[in-house]
Specification:
Blueprint lengths: L3 H15 L3 E2 L23 E4 L5 E9 L2 E10 L8 E3 L2 E7 L4 E9 L15 E7 L4 E5 L3 E7 L5 E9 L13 H8 L1 E2 L11 H9 L6 E3 L7 E5 L4 H4 L4 H15 L6 E2 L1
Parallel strand pairs: 1-14, 8-14
Antiparallel strand pairs: 2-3, 2-12, 3-4, 3-15, 4-11, 5-13, 6-9, 6-11, 7-8, 7-10
Helix pairs in contact: 2-3
Length: 265
């Protein structure tokens, strides 16, 4: 039996097709960026949190001179994933070891935290979808409407990488506020074999507390979106920041090799 979130996502796509909002054309073949492996800091006890959108996170944060970031090795249940949202203080990468996730992102930017992508404020976004392949790495810079959903019937792994943007105010973990956000709105996991329930309070805080951490989080899918398109423009399909990503990888490797100038926790 399909999960309710998966059925809801499928019904939404059917509705958009019926309204003529979704382009159904076979996309041209696009080159994809891949990584054979993404390193994790060698930390004995990672912090485990259940996200209000269903993600099962294991967090690690690293700080060194001139850089701060959080990564989360996560499990994404079938049908799970966050509704459209915008980051203002972090730039993000998604690494999909097994693929099977549908990512979406806008080309339009929304740089004002007080004017998100609603009809009456920043204006709705067109979002472009991509069905990820194994080991694909996808870059999502700040200010873009984005999100994802697990479109398979199985739990799939996903590694999140969030790097603090230079414009971010200071947060406790020097990571642009992302880990602090999930500590605030998520539910701590004490036993990975017996996950806690996602409460209505957590879902509400997921939206209402988001601006405190430089995030606009929508309540429902079409709050920020007026069109989906499965043919991303080349500029979006080729979007990347390899220099910043390599600096993250080098920082993790330095920590794992005993570099005392790097702190990970």
């Amino acid at each position: 039996m399909k999960s309710f979130p998966l059925l809801l996502s499928q019904l939404l796509l059917v509705l958009l097709i019926a309204l003529g909002s979704l382009t159904i054309i076979c996309p041209k073949a696009l080159a994809i960026a891949t990584l054979d492996n993404f390193p994790s800091p060698n930390i004995e006890n990672t912090e485990k949190i259940l996200g209000p959108a269903g993600e099962i996170f294991e967090f690690s944060t690293c700080n060194a001179e001139g850089i701060g970031f959080t990564i989360a090795n996560a499990q994404i249940p079938a049908g799970a994933g966050p509704l459209p949202h915008i980051h203002h203080y972090t730039n993000e990468w998604f690494w999909t070891p097994q693929g099977g996730l549908e990512l979406f992102q806008s080309t339009k930017e929304y740089p004002d935290l007080d004017n998100p992508a609603t009809v009456t404020q920043g204006g709705n976004a067109t979002i472009y979808t991509v069905q990820t392949e194994p080991n694909q790495i996808v870059y999502g810079p700040k200010y873009r409407v984005h999100g994802f959903v697990n479109i398979t019937s199985e739990t799939r792994p996903l590694t999140f990488i969030w790097r603090q943007d230079p414009t971010s105010p200071e947060y406790e973990f020097h990571d642009g506020g992302i880990r602090e956000y999930f500590k605030d709105v998520g539910i701590p996991i004490k036993n990975m074999k017996k996950l806690p329930k996602i409460t209505d309070q957590a879902r509400e805080k997921f939206v209402t507390h988001a601006p405190d951490y430089g995030i606009n989080q929508s309540y429902y899918f079409l709050q920020y979106v007026n069109k989906l398109d499965n043919q991303p423009p080349a500029a979006l399909a080729n979007l990347k920041d390899d220099q910043s990503l390599n600096e993250i990888i080098e920082t993790i490797n330095a920590y794992n090799q005993g570099d005392s100038s790097v702190t990970c926790f």
